[in-house]
Amino acid sequence: MAEEEKKAAPVNFIRQIIDADLASGKVDHVVTRFPPEPNGYLHIGHAKSICLNFGIAQDYHGKCNLRFDDTNPAKEGQEYVDSIKRDVEWLGFKWDGEPHFSSDYFDRLYGFAIELINKGLAYVDELSPDEIREYRGTLTEPGKNSPYRDRSVEENLALFEKMKNGEFAEGKACLRAKIDMASSFMCMRDPVIYRIKFAEHHRTGKKWCIYPMYDFTHCLSDAIEGITHSICTLEFQDNRRLYDWVIEHVSAPSQPHQYEFSRLNLEYCLTSKRKLNLLVTNGIVDGWDDPRLATISGMRRRGFTPAAIREFCRRIGVTKQDNTVEISALETCVRDDLNEHAKRAMAVLHPLRLIIDNYESEGEEISAPNHPQKPEMGERKLPFGRELFIEQDDFRESANKQYKRLVLGKAVRLRYAYAVVADSCEKNEAGEITAVHCHYFPESLGKDPEGVKVRGVIHWVSAEGSEEAEVRLFDRLFTVPDPGSAEDFLSVVNKDSVTVIPGARIEKSLGSAVPGEAYQFERTGYFCADSKLSKPGHPVFNQTVALKDTVKKAVSA
């Protein structure tokens, strides 16, 4: 991570709490954690949490654990573990020591459950899941006690042992904390803390057939790891009461405290792993790393940079107020970063042959800067010859004065090269222009020809010295700003969210571009080679962002 990023420590209410805790002696060091469930790929909301937790650890010279809260073997797997580690490292952060797993603590968690039973604070319930929901009550009506709530400690211990030994079928028994069925907080109405699942765990195999619930596991994992500041999003605010209750009523090795901040809501994006998974499994997108998704892997494949995502998270800040951020704010950060660091190149997306009739040389090489404002990035050589490709939109037979590109009888400059004047054009039977004939001014390299008004500058590539490529342009994946609120989010999928251009022409050097390496296709936008589809002899480039924010206007038009 760049030094200037490290120096610009943000100010927010969580850091103010930490400052006060350190000043008062409540804590003498800071330990945070990033605790994803390995049941999907990370998205932009996780990026905000990563930057917050790891950033705090860095700035306070503490440590941040990467912990996988892997309590549901039916939905979790090693693929997700590997993707999460890859995403955290790609964003520029490193966890302290080895990754942690809640499954590492299953024996200790089982012991804490036994402790609650012995204290008369947990019981084995044989109500069905539907009956448990019915007994729980509503937001306006209190719940009622289970008929199994007053079992003896000895009976509960024996039944819990039977659960552990696989002597109950799934759904026939569970362990519940004994708290208060009349509580105004639903999470305190005797929550389930252990359930039966005959599923093989990706780390513990078939050792267990009972698994602790997330709310029971999460707080105790924090306590085991000595987390000083447990930071989560606002939807867990009510659950803080259960978090504190569990810590208070078992012999927890430390006393962590939970703090909540607002989650990141981004226009035209989904951050629900369940809904993202539906997009993947239904084949609507090309996997979790589809460039149209706001997953970290999707943004990486599209060409977003770690620095841009970190800067975006810094700019939006950390508050307790829910809001929705315009996606243009993220794209602005990406554009700002790529403008500084991306090499320049030329690519013609819709090629039109340009023939320079008076060019008699066998060819030459023209120097072009890799970045016009950064000479330290060096230069590249562009082959130039009698036949070139320009964009179809860069030529018209006639046009008004506002059109600053190539028109019959008018002059333009070929970027970094010569000025040319269009003389005629060829057409096919359908009347479509297939080639433009022009003449050039041999003395116009680097200067305007005498007595000739040059209307503008267009880009080009050599016909012989270029390579064919596939280019993919992206629009918003959804047609509405808040797809998550739609009754059926699949109904608001934008069917035209990707445009595939199969016959683009690129500078030959781009044919071996490294996936993820950013380029500005001059006058067009920022692009990178696709990590999945690009192959030797068949380069595929993804549009990262346009040079200007034009997509939003197109969607709403």
Amount of beta strand: 15-25%
Radius of gyration: 30 Å
Please summarize the sheet with the most strands.
7 strands, mixed
Number of DSSP strand runs: 29
- For the residues shown, what is the average pLDDT? 95
Residue stretches low in confidence (pLDDT < 50, at least 5 long) are 552-557
Helical content band:
25-40%
> What strand line-up does the widest sheet have?
12-27-28-29-25-26-13
Number of helices in the DSSP assignment: 14
Distance between the termini: 39 Å
Q: Which class do the helix and strand fractions yield?
A: alpha/beta
Shape: elongated
What would your notes on this structure say?
By secondary structure, the chain is α/β, with parallel strands linked by helices. The strands form eight sheets. It has a seven-stranded mixed sheet with strand order 12-27-28-29-25-26-13. Strands 23-20-21-22-14-17-24 form a seven-stranded mixed sheet, with no helix packed on it. Helix 8 packs across helix 9 (240-249). The longest helix is centred in the N-terminal third of the chain and has 16 residues, at 44-59. It starts with a helix and ends with a helix.
